[in-house]
């Protein structure tokens, strides 16, 4: 599980579950809640570090692509 603080409002944070799978080349890792967000690494530690970077890049891209568009934020508490 990875937690990310919102850059503009540090009181907002998001948690994402990541799936990790051992492969012949090392480890594959992906985030089911973020379609297309995946990474890999030779070791489990490297794969988990890489997915953190991938999640950050994914969220920054979504933020950039949604600039100027109308959207609604839905506050939600989850256990």
How does the SSE layout of this entry go?
Elements: E1 2-5, E2 13-16, E3 19-22, E4 27-30, E5 38-41, H1 44-65
Antiparallel strand pairs: 1-2, 3-4, 4-5
Describe the structure.
This protein is α+β, with helices and mostly antiparallel strands and 79 residues long. The protein is 28% helix and 25% strand. The chain has a three-stranded antiparallel beta sheet, covered by helices on one side. Strands 1-2 form a two-stranded antiparallel sheet. The protein is elongated, with a radius of gyration of 14 Å. The two termini are 13 Å apart.
Main beta-sheet annotation: 3 strands, antiparallel
Uncertain regions: pLDDT < 50 for 5+ in a row? none
Strand content: 25-35%
Taking the alpha carbons of the first and last residues, their distance comes to 13 Å
Spell out the helices and strands N to C: EEEEEH
| Strands, count | 5
Total helical segments: 1
Report the average pLDDT across residues: 86
Gyration radius (Cα, Å) is 14 Å
Q: Report helical residue fraction.
A: 25-40%
Instruction: Give the spatial strand order of the biggest sheet.
Output: 3-4-5
**Given the helix and strand composition, which structural class is it?**
alpha+beta
What does the overall shape look like?
elongated
């Amino acid at each position: 599980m990875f937690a990310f603080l919102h850059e503009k409002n540090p009181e907002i944070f998001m948690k994402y579950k990541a799936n990790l799978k051992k492969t012949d080349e090392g480890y594959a890792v992906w985030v089911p809640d973020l379609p297309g967000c995946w990474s890999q690494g030779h070791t489990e530690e490297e794969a988990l570090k890489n997915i953190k970077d991938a999640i950050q890049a994914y969220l920054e891209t979504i933020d950039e692509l949604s600039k100027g568009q109308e959207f609604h934020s839905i506050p939600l508490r989850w256990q």
